[in-house]
């Protein structure tokens, strides 16, 4: 079992929930998100990119929200197939939102599996990259929701967004 990560963001949890139910907003906070569209209730399809040392990996991804208990808990499940690499990944990210002084405490955990060539590519490297991307998602969430209404600021969405690791597209195993 992986340890939970806990962070407090300066945003009321009632403002956080809608981000996960809107493809446009979710696409703005997912690191490395190049495209995200609704594919049905609580399901999105898109393209995520991540920079992994000397290369950028793009993956076709289906994101599904499960175990939804607004505004306290949801689980984000990412199923992806990297372009040009055999194999795939599945990331299961349970997320809890609790009121905290000055904002919301977000507790999350990353459970990640990889298959095929992707699994042999370097699971520890991929796992670290994916952990950074989940942390970047949380930071992007705070930044997006903290900006004044009508502000033209846009979250960086390219493969280098968020400290050099652009998205969970590569997964980790």
Task: Report what the structure shows.
Helix content is 25%, strand content 42%. By secondary structure, it is an alpha+beta fold. Strands 1, 2, 3, 4, 5, 6, 7 and 8 form an eight-stranded antiparallel β-sheet that branches. The radius of gyration is 15 Å and the shape is globular. The two termini are 13 Å apart.
Throw out a few tags for this protein:
173 residues, disordered C terminus, 25% helix, Alpha-D-Glucose-1,6-Bisphosphate, Chain A, domain 4, eight-stranded antiparallel beta sheet, alpha+beta
Summarize this entry quickly:
The protein has helices at 13-20, 23-29, 116-120, 123-146; strands spanning 5-9, 33-40, 43-52, 55-69, 73-82, 88-100, 103-108, 111-115.
The number of distinct helices, counting runs of at least 4 residues, comes to: 4
Q: Structural class given helices, strands, pairing?
A: alpha+beta
Give the CATH H-level superfamily.
START domain
Order of helices and strands: EHHEEEEEEEHH
The portion of residues forming beta strands comes to 35-45%
- According to DSSP, the number of beta strands is 8
What is the quaternary state of this protein?
single chain
Question: Under the CATH scheme, which class?
Answer: Alpha Beta
Mean pLDDT: 82
CATH third-level topology: Alpha-D-Glucose-1,6-Bisphosphate, Chain A, domain 4
Number of domains: 1
**Low-confidence runs of at least 5 consecutive residues:** 151-173
State the CATH architecture.
Answer: 2-Layer Sandwich
Net shape:
globular
Give the C-alpha Rg.
Answer: 15 Å
């Amino acid at each position: 079992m992986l340890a939970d990560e806990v962070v407090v963001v300066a945003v009321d949890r009632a403002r956080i929930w809608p981000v996960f139910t809107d493809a446009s907003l979710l696409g703005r906070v997912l690191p490395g998100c190049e495209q995200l569209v609704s594919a049905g209730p609580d399901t999105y399809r898109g393209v995520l990119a991540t920079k992994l040392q000397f290369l950028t990996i793009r993956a076709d991804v289906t994101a599904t929200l499960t175990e939804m208990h607004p505004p306290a808990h949801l689980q984000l499940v990412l199923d992806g197939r990297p372009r040009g690499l055999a194999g795939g990944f599945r990331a299961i990210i349970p997320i809890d939102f609790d009121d905290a002084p000055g904002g919301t405490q977000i507790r999350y955990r990353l459970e990640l599996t990889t298959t095929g060539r992707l699994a042999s590519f370097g699971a520890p490297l991929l796992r670290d990259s994916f952990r950074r991307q989940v942390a970047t998602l949380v930071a992007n969430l705070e930044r997006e929701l903290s900006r004044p209404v009508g502000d033209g600021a846009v979250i960086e969405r390219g493969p280098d967004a968020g400290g050099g690791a652009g998205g969970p597209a590569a997964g980790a195993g």
